[in-house]
Amino acid sequence: MQQLTEQLQKVFRKVFMDEKLTIGPGTTAKDIKMWDSLTHLELIAAVEEEFGIKFTFSEVMQFNNVGDMMDVIRKIKNDL
Amino acid sequence: MIFNSPIILLFLIAVITLNYFVSPLFRSFFLLAASFAFIGYYSIESLLAVIIFAGFNFYIAKKISGNRLLYITGLLLNSYAIIMFNYFHITKHGVDFSYSFVSFNIGSFVVALGLSFYSLQNIAYLSEIYFKRFKPVKNIVEFGLYNSFFPKVISGPVMLPAEFMPQISKNTVTKEKLISGFNRFLVGVFKKIVIADRLSPAVHSIFDFGDQYSGITTIAGIYLFTIQLYFDFSGYTDMALGIGKMLGYDLKENFNFPLRSTSVSEFWRRWHISLIGWFTNYIYYPLVYRLRSYKKAAALTGIVVTFLVSGIWHGIGLTFLAWAFCHIVYLSFELMSKRFRVSLSGKVNHEIYEAISIFIVFNAVCFSNIFFRSASVEAAFQLIENSVSHFFPVNWLSGFIAPLAVGGHQVDEFNFYISLLICGSCLLFERRINKLALSTKLNVWFITIVTLLIFLFGIFNNGERFIYMQF
């Protein structure tokens, strides 16, 4: 869990160009200035690259917070 | 005008009263019948079109799951409705258009009534079902109500089935809903008749006569158009949502104080929310999702395609494309400069940064709206040129007041100042006004004062069309 969070945080920091960014399961786009509809899919693509997975369109549209994203990542990795 | 002609007001009073007393079992049927009466009152052709498309979409949705060809056919036919009912009046003014299934006389705009919004909703319905986000509606009366509900059928808000259908079975009409719906409706009438329509002559004077007004006069007219558009359309939205509320329904919000946006992308989350939501859901996100490995290029492509489609949806014409192009430039700039702006905002005083951002965004929106409003791109460029040349008028009365303070055929300075005062105060206090509009408490003072202001300062005689009704 911790490792997943840290790995994901690395991606967020890279995409949003902020080395001090921290994320948790409850983090949403409202908490991060750089995260909006224009940058959301860029983030998704970077997460997919990092973990070697592909999200479906409906999964991407249903993420309400980072926790949702982590749940789906774990589910995909377990299924692989 | 849709909601504030005397016959329609009588219709509204009758429907709202009867709806309150009709048994909840029959309400959907009653409201559907009322909706058909409403549409048919404006044009029988539109009613026929609505009934045919409603039936078509109802039946096709049942077979569409997993059937890509049928889905695309449905999309194409609904899109054809937009073309059929939106564009021909621009290119063939006053000509009988008879190769559709009914022959139309398009001397009047009425025929093109809002089937563009209506078709977007139909496309949304089919899409939600095809992508398995919603199950086809089984009850044809309930579907008909969702499809043609009169407060929203003409100019939106466009609503997804998941946002409306669940409300049907839970529909109740309470005293609180009647009061808050009425308050909202009243505020909407005020915004449209007192604010927007009072600004209309000034805007008309600057935009439609090609005269070489001085810079400051032209800029004033340009600013006033965006403000007129805002109050015109948010006033319509308030009326529509107020009526919906009095009938027990919560329709989708369309505006969230958009002129206070600190970025153009924020503006598009606050202005015409239901329409932009449609474009974002069905064009932007699916496209950018498919192209996401191209990172920023994907988002840029999404911006370009989404706004081109939005421009064309508003109308075929270079002006709408130019308007779309402005926003493509703005959003692309914002995307590429996001990091810089975030770090800048961290270094500068928060209030100052916000105030300057709001000012810049307002000007950017007003600039794009020059194209939106102008009859042609040449006229728009002429206006832009006028804004920066001969900035101050030689004579303030004839060069600034007279063009803007046009009341009928004479200069009406006093009334112009009243218009400015009213629209200025309403912009300043819009949050407070909005709270009053949503209040469930019966405030007799509020109602009396607003009604008085409507009759004292409202424009009743110029029949100015509600701007978004032409779409």
What would you note in describing this structure?
The complex is a heterodimer of chains A (80) and B (471). By secondary structure, chain A is mainly alpha-helical. Helix content of chain A is 61%, strand content 0%. Chain A has a single domain, classed as ACP-like (Non-ribosomal Peptide Synthetase Peptidyl Carrier Protein, Chain A, Orthogonal Bundle). Chain B has 471 residues and is mainly α. Chain B folds into 2 domains: 6-171, no CATH class; 178-470, no CATH class. Chain B contains 21 helices and 4 strands. In chain B, the strands form 2 sheets. Chain B has a two-stranded antiparallel ribbon. Chain B has a two-stranded antiparallel ribbon with strand order 3-4. Chain B is globular and about 70 Å long. Classes of the chains: A mainly alpha (80), B mainly alpha (471).
Q: Which percent range fits the helix content of chain B?
A: over 70%
Number of helices of chain B: 21
Number of strands of chain A: 0
- Give the tally of structural domains of chain B: 2
**Computed Rg of chain A:** 12 Å
Terminal Cα separation of chain A, in Å?
Answer: 18 Å
Task: Flag low-confidence runs of chain A.
Answer: none
Q: Helix/strand/pairing class of chain B, anyone?
A: mainly alpha
Helices and strands of chain A, in N-to-C order?
Answer: HHHH
Tally of DSSP β-strands of chain B? 4
